[in-house]
Amino acid sequence: MEWITRLMEALGSPGAGLAVALENVFPPVPSEVILPLAGFTAGQGKISLIAAILWTTAGSVVGALVLYGLGSWLGLERMRRIADKLPFATVSDVDKADEWFDKHGTKAVFVGRMVPVVRSLISIPAGVSGMPIAKFTLYTAAGSLVWNTALILAGYALGENYELVDRYLGWVSTAVLAALAIAVVWFAVSRVKARRS
């Protein structure tokens, strides 16, 4: 966490934005730590509160666009070929996921920006499904603005106790990871049973 503090001390609010952009692509430190710290730093008068919100939102969008680009590069046809070679996936799984994203993608991107873990991952299926980049950027920016503002204001209000945000949201991250792990195991087990029958 010390590197984030140094980044903000050296670059100000753009440093917070850079930290968030990096966290989106390579999450060594979650935004649940970065954003409240930015709020605390703003509370000390070292950076502007509004600038911190705007720069971190810009950082969220930039990081999300990198992963969107990865998904776009993978593309639907490549994902179908990959699924065809995997033991527990089928081409129809990819098609169903793509159909679901066509119907619910905008809501998934917007809400997903406010869910730990999902926040980064949601950008990849958006790119795979070919969601228009302007729409993706708009909903990513909107969802990120809500999330970033809430956590920065929490850090601003809590002052030196800003780490409480990460402590409580850490449980949410753990729950999301557990739910994803259970879903993967359930999917694999159901596929094995289906093949045996």
Automatic annotation (TrEMBL):
Subcellular location: Cell membrane
Family annotation (Pfam families): VTT_dom (PF09335)
Signal peptide positions on this chain: none
InterPro entries xrefs: DedA_domain, VTT_dom
First-listed, main subcellular location of the protein, grouped into a coarse class: membrane
TM ranges: 47-71, 136-156, 168-189
Keywords carried by this UniProt record: Cell membrane, Membrane, Transmembrane, Transmembrane helix
Membership in a protein family: Belongs to the DedA family.
Name listed for the protein in its UniProt record: Membrane protein DedA with SNARE-associated domain
Organism this protein belongs to: Lentzea atacamensis
